[in-house]
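Minutes, project huddle
Topic: does the predicted pose make sense with adenosine-5'-diphosphate bound?
PN asked that the exact inputs be recorded in the minutes so nobody has to dig through chat later. Recorded below.
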Amino acid sequence: MAAVVQLEEIHKIYNSGEVPVHAVRGVSLTIERGDFVAIMGASGSGKSTLMNLLGCLDRPSKGRYRLDGTDVSRLGRNQLADIRNQKLGFVFQGFNLLSRTTALENVELPMLYGARRMSSRAMRDRAMKSLELVGLGDRAAHFPSRLSGGQQQRVAIARALINDPQILLADEPTGNLDSKTSVEVMGVFQKLNEQGITLVMVTHELDIAHYCRRNLIMRDGRLVSDVQVADRLVATDQLRKIQEAEAAAKLTA
Ligand code: ADP
Ligand code: MG
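Predicted holo structure (tokens), as shared on screen:
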């Protein structure tokens, strides 16, 4: 079966406050393996809630969620934690790296909690491969403070990939980055996607969404638009243009 994600009439109601908040209102969605999806929509439209449901960080109040063929909508906390470890990788806006450990050690971290028993040598080799995949093989011994924002986000991506996830989920991964660095990170995502990794990300920025294959828009907890991106931007092309413009600006300066 090619569908990694199947949501059927998913609802999420938060009951924590005085009044219940109906944050997701009947979302049905299928995501095929190898897709690259951007979720957009105004602040408060339910994007993060939907991402938390997709990421098994929270359970739907109603509806069915099949992840990689397994119904995960009614699983308990421990079972959800196992599913997250085995099937999902997460990238956040704020990188969430440990500051006193090297890039390599940050990438190794999820393996320490993983089900698989591995020698420290095997873990190091895997972490190194993952860093090389995001183009940071030569920065393995650096502490996060010695890395740029874009490099830190790439370390976080390498960490998210370490357990071979079925899906990589990213909530505003370029939210803290300047526009050129954002394009670099989208380049890493495009490269991973070409290698078959399924990606779902939330973004506020329309131009960033143009690097994805498919764009969803949420409004008031509902999916109101779902389109294939007609003329996708290619990050390597855009980066070349940015560099040419920078070089031209230097010549005239
Ligand atoms: P977005 O990511 O699109 O900005 P969210 O999913 O964060 O939207 O929020 C959707 C709605 O749910 C908002 O009205 C928000 O205030 C509410 N909400 C989000 N998280 C919680 C929570 N833990 N408890 C109660 N309400 C929440
Ligand atoms: Mg949000």
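Observations noted during the meeting:
- The pocket of adenosine-5'-diphosphate (ligand 1) is lined by residues 14, 16-17, 21, 23, 41, 43-49 (CB under 6 Å).
- Residues 235-252 form the longest helix (18 residues).
No decisions taken; revisit at the next huddle.
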